[in-house]
Amino acid sequence: MIFHVLTIFPEFFEGPFAHGVVKRAADSGIVSIRIHNLRDWTHDRHRTVDDRPFGGGEGMVLKPEPVFEAVEAIWPERGEGRKALLLSAQGRRFDQAMANRLAKERELLLLCGRYEGVDERVAAHLADDEISIGNYVLSGGELAAAVVVDSVARLIPGVLGNETSAAFDSFQESGHGEGLLDCPHWTRPAEFRGWKAPEVLLNGNHEEIRKFRREAAREKTAKLRPDLLG
Ligand code: SAM
Q1: What confidence score (pLDDT) does residue 163 get?
Q2: Do 170 and 147 belong together in one domain?
Q3: Are residues 149 and 192 in the same domain?
Q4: In angstroms, what is the span from residue 88 Cα to ligand 1's centroid?
């Protein structure tokens, strides 16, 4: 899978992709992450990417020309398996089901907004979808793009060492089932400050452990995210 990110702050991504699962996936060639500087598609001395909003008001808006030119240069042809996604507080809500769908694409191109946002013609005529990582406003699309890359990359076959571990993650329909939260986890020591790990997890009976985990996942979901129980 190839992830493209279009941003005015390419250096932002030196951090998020330099560790752990995503870095290993990139190093092994299972994913490729290509960061593109939006200013490379400007044609003036100041490399201008923004302008004032029509109608007046505060702030600046990212201009359409460099964004269109960048996407058309990165992908001279669009078509099957390629999705351009505009990160936007106004977008469709990103969730695990969307991450699963996106993990089946060949290439994703994530368009990061800044300032007051991006000229609306990008959402209307260039992006395949507009996606939000939650009901709050970030200062830019870069953090949101990093979230999307991380959560999609871990679902690509071969990225996680143990093929089943993504299946048991919270919100997955597989694993403990029905999109619940993951079960709680404990590790050594078996007793810490008087708090014991559940006995059943220590007894080696896989059927009992499986049942306990399923029930514990259900209880935790009921307590913290009853909305997921439908
Ligand atoms: N004026 C916009 C609004 O109220 O919807 C907010 C613009 S925000 C300051 C600048 C950029 O951050 C957006 O263009 C978008 O790319 C990104 N952004 C902000 N919140 C986001 C969210 N919840 N999910 C994804 N991207 C977000």
Answers
A1: 59
A2: no
A3: no
A4: 5
Residue whose CA is at the smallest distance from ligand 1 atom 12: 140
Task: Report yes or no on 160 lying in a domain.
Answer: no
Q: Exposure string (b/e) for 160-183, b if CB count within 10 Å is 16 or more? A: beeeeebebbbbbeebbeebbbbb
Is residue 117 within 6 Å of ligand 1 at its C-beta? yes
Q: Check pLDDT > 90 for residue 176.
A: no
pLDDT at 175 over 80: no
The total number of structural domains that make up the chain: 2
pTM: 0.96
Ligand 1: does its nearest atom lie under 6 Å from the Cβ of 140?
A: yes
For 170, the domain range is 165-229
C-alpha 138 to ligand 1 mean position (Å): 5
One domain, residues 42 and 133: yes
